[in-house]
Amino acid sequence: MPKALDTTIVAVVTDIRLGTEPLIGYGFSSFGRFAQGGLIADRFAPRLLRADVLDMLHGDGLAIDPLKAWAVMMTGEKPGGHGERCVAVGALDMAIWDLAAKARQLPLFRLLRQVFETETSLVSVPIYAGGGYAFPHNDLACLREEAERFRTMGFRAMKMKVGAHSLEVDCRRIETVLEVFETGDKVAIDAMNAYSSPRVREAAAAFEPYSLRWFEDICDPLDFATHRAIASAYRPPISAGEALFSASDARNLLRYAGLRRGHDVLTFDPAHCYGIPEYARILAGFLDQGWSARDFQPHGGHLYSLHVALGFGLGGCECNPHNFQPFGGLADGTAIVEGEASPPDIPGIGFESRNLLMDLFRQLVQS
Amino acid sequence: MPKALDTTIVAVVTDIRLGTEPLIGYGFSSFGRFAQGGLIADRFAPRLLRADVLDMLHGDGLAIDPLKAWAVMMTGEKPGGHGERCVAVGALDMAIWDLAAKARQLPLFRLLRQVFETETSLVSVPIYAGGGYAFPHNDLACLREEAERFRTMGFRAMKMKVGAHSLEVDCRRIETVLEVFETGDKVAIDAMNAYSSPRVREAAAAFEPYSLRWFEDICDPLDFATHRAIASAYRPPISAGEALFSASDARNLLRYAGLRRGHDVLTFDPAHCYGIPEYARILAGFLDQGWSARDFQPHGGHLYSLHVALGFGLGGCECNPHNFQPFGGLADGTAIVEGEASPPDIPGIGFESRNLLMDLFRQLVQS
Q1: Are B317 and B323 in contact (CB under 8 A)?
Q2: How far apart are CA A101 and CA A113, in angstroms?
Q3: How many CB atoms lie within 10 A of CB B135?
Q4: Are strands B340-341 and B125-130 parallel, antiparallel or unpaired?
Q5: Does residue A161 have an active-site annotation?
Q6: Per-residue DSSP letters for A183-240?
Q7: Residue A33: which pLDDT band, with cuts at 50, 70 and 90?
Q8: Residue B34: which of A32, A35, A43 has the nearest Cβ?
Q9: Which residues in chain A have their CB less than 8 angstroms from residue B225's CB?
Q10: Which of A96, B142, B200, B246 is the most exposed place for a label (fewest CB within 10 A)?
Q11: Helix (H) or strand (E) holding B129
Q12: Which of A82, A102, A159, A161 does the annotation list as catalytic?
């Protein structure tokens, strides 16, 4: 059986040396959108490789300026059609930020705070465990076991999937997780854009009594009218953004979807949104309209999104402790303290703190 | 100087024989979005190659059912993010329709009429010449020469680019073309999504007195609020759709952009919109709201968009007689009669009627 979904990994290798080691940045395309290798190899990497190095050098002389490199990658790209290429660029952008932070001997979140002048001094962010997919056998028992495992690891909240079963079964699944996490504000549900417009109205009515943490990706991400209808009828928070990949699409969500400032949650994935420069524009668009950075909880559940959350002072982020390995989760051996976590205190994104992941990245550089 | 833009070509080769020749379908990714080879090779073609042939066979037993093949290609694809993959799928879908029409010994437009039960008996459609890009030297003289060449070829209308110069220069360019085509309804302008929201308001005011055929891609294709503002202030037609690639995005254009039914023009490119099945859904969405198929003028300017226009009874289509060769334009030696044209009366899309193009496609099959 061929894999239905994988991810794309990139390494940006320089001729700079840090001690005896070459300076290398690593990136990958987060989870859910895949096969970006051709776009990277045929369209975006060649622009970087062809560019005059002086057009990408930072004013401080310390290697690459990620914002300049981003402008080089996007040369000639047309407005509209924000899918796939945004993931290809996001993966390259991640590697370039990793590189830039390593060149300055800073963890990524500290470089983000410098570059974007964010006013935050958080040392950790709230995280929640991503999981709760349907199990092929003994679904409810396995789901309870998974939730218990998350609690034992120190998570104080988790997100589970809905939409693959009848509403009756999904209600039983939610109740099963609530037996472990106890209150609705600890449990988010994610419909993965599966519901049709009529169906999500039924689902919202069925789920509302649980007063859940949030109801994510409730329908087609571009069906703003249905978002508006649910936001006006369903009292607990909804969340949106994971399947929108540009500042233009984000502006439409803001204009048309009727989301409730300070109540609903924004899950844009920076690795899917052309990387950090565009994510910063998305964030700025919401801040301009009175939203808070605390309303953002980036999708991903890996070290990179943890840095983005800590660097921009966001409300928290997902963590995938066992799904999407070896990419998901925290640095090897990281403790979750009072439901919060920090990235490792090493330069860059800190992929080097994860042994299995580095085995993979090193193959890329050696090949 | 590396090429900034190319296209992606595909061949779908079968073990069916038509006489002594193998049955092969050809497709390409139209113009403007490129480097789809990786997405095709890593994500979409493998689904077709893995599929059970019975899941794609038409009930008539005559080779592949393009609608079934489309469903196979889209297996597991997620809602949202309609860019690039829609072009990869569109190129494969084009080749599959070419194949399916050849297997039935029909020109593509006749197969489209059968499959979609379109009520049209047109034998030709109005076409207009696409061109009018800025020339690096002697721009106005070259532009006039190009317009005269189009007229001599039999075109009764053309489309030219605006937005690369000041409004004053663009007005002189428009006036130059009007000296050849005489009346505004013969000359469309295309800003290629280059104008910012404030700038397009100035541009619309400057261009309005010319009463042009239409004003295309006026700003960011996802900035529906600006479309609405221009549609309410600018009297002549505007056109939109070329840079929207799905039925979900098209529905937002319909919901939010304030376009005027029976007045404004829809330029969706079927090869960029996941191919014909999704294009048919886009069309149906507008027809449901009282629009006419005559309001559609697909982007592309090649034989495939001519078949789509003739098959669905659209208002006409673009023709690129000298740009984007060897893909743009009609069958070799085709006459334009009273501003209208037909595809060649041979099975499939009729790429075989274009010698230079077939040289390219044959290299793909032989390699």
Answers
A1: no
A2: 11
A3: 14
A4: antiparallel
A5: yes
A6: SGGGEEEE-TT---HHHHHHHHHHHGGG--S-EE--S-TT-HHHHHHHHHH--S-EEE
A7: confident
A8: A43
A9: 255
A10: B142
A11: strand B125-130
A12: A161
Cα–Cα distances in Å, from A48 out to A41, A51, A264, B28, B294? 11, 5, 38, 27, 44
- Closest partner residue to B79 (CB to CB) among A193, A224, A256 is A193
Q: State the distance between the two ends of chain A, measured CA to CA, in whole angstroms.
A: 26
Residue A247 structure tokens: 């500042």
Taking an 8 Å cut-off on Cβ atoms, the answer to whether A243 and B79 are in contact is yes
Yes or no, beta carbons of A249 and B32 under 8 Å apart: no
A326 preceded by a cis bond (ω within 30 of 0): yes
Structure tokens, B73: 């290609």
Q: Are A177 and A160 in contact (CB under 8 A)?
A: yes
Q: Evaluate the CA torsion angle A173, A174, A175, A178 in order and state its sign.
A: positive
Contact A223 B82 (CB under 8 A): no
User: Given a cut of 90, is residue A20 above it in pLDDT?
Assistant: no
B40-96 tens-digit pLDDT:
999 999 999 999 989 999 988 878 999 999 999 999 999 999 999 999 999 999 999
Which chain A residues are closer than 8 Å to B251 by Cβ? 222-223
Beta carbons of A119 and A292 less than 8 angstroms apart? no
CA distances from A147 to A210, A334, B36 (A): 17, 19, 41
Judged by CB atoms closer than 8 Å, whether chains meet at B84 and A83 is answered as: yes
| Domains of chain B, earliest start first | 9-105+357-366 (3.30.390.10), 116-352 (3.20.20.120)
Q: Taking CB atoms and an 8 Å cutoff, what residues of chain B touch A251?
A: 222-223
Residue of A nearest to B240 (CA): A80
**Nearest residue to A238 (alpha-carbon basis) of A285, A279, A181, A297:** A297
What value does the mean pLDDT take over residues B361-365? 91
Contacts of A223 in chain B (CB under 8 A): 248, 251
Positive or negative: CA dihedral A319, A321, A326, A330: positive
Which residue matches tokens 């668009």?
A285
Mean pLDDT, rounded, for B190-207: 97
Q: What percent of chain B has pLDDT over 90?
A: 89
- C-alpha distance from A159 to closest chain B C-alpha (Å): 19
Asked if residues A367 and A126 have their Cβ atoms less than 8 Å apart, the reply is: no
pLDDT at site A2: 40
What was the ipTM of the complex prediction? Answer: 0.94
The one-letter amino acid at A59: G
Write the burial class of residue A152 (CB in 10 Å: 0-12 exposed, 13-18 middle, 19+ buried). Answer: exposed
- From residue B208, how far is each of A255, B147, B276 by CA, in Å? 28, 21, 34
Which residues are CB-contacts of B345 (< 8 A; sequence separation ≥ 6)? B107
Q: Report the distance separating Cα A123 and Cα A136, nearest Å.
A: 39
Question: Would the pLDDT of A92 be above 90?
Answer: yes
